[in-house]
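Private note to self, pasted from the team thread so I don't lose it. Backbone tokens:
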């Protein structure tokens, strides 16, 4: 049986809203997926590991600057996170080995106009915002490819 990504209610919308303009788009916190229950964990900059409040699993934080990617497991449909560049990813739930093709990877960028967080297929050159219709160019200076852990 597939394990849900977030078995508990999501936090209120303000917690998921993009960071306010003026602080460079970062709020001093980053996110990663719990290695135990697959919940989304928030942690402060500089942390080396995070203990999940739901299942008490300790998840190691990748080094600063490590680019993470996501894919959906072909066996149990769980969202998996892994270090970008890996050729395969083993699911911690069903142990299926998934091939990590760049064409199947997802990236994120904040809209250049309204700052809405947009998701797009990795490798795209621009992404059009569904809220304000602004076309944001995707490049090293404007995108955060999936999750990029900042120091």
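Design output:
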């Amino acid at each position: 049986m597939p394990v849900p990504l977030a078995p508990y209610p999501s936090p209120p919308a303000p917690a998921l809203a993009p960071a306010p303009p003026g602080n460079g788009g970062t709020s001093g916190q980053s996110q990663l997926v719990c290695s135990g229950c697959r919940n989304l964990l928030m942690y402060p900059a500089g942390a080396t590991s995070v203990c999940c409040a739901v299942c008490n699993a300790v998840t190691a934080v990748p080094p600063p600057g490590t680019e993470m990617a996501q894919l959906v497991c072909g066996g149990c449909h769980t969202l998996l996170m892994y270090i970008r560049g890996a050729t395969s990813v083993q699911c911690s739930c069903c142990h299926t080995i998934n091939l990590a093709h760049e064409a199947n990877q997802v990236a994120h960028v904040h809209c250049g106009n309204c700052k809405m967080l947009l998701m797009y297929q990795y490798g795209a050159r621009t992404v059009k915002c569904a809220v304000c219709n602004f076309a944001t160019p995707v490049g090293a200076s404007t995108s955060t490819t999936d999750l990029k852990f900042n120091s």
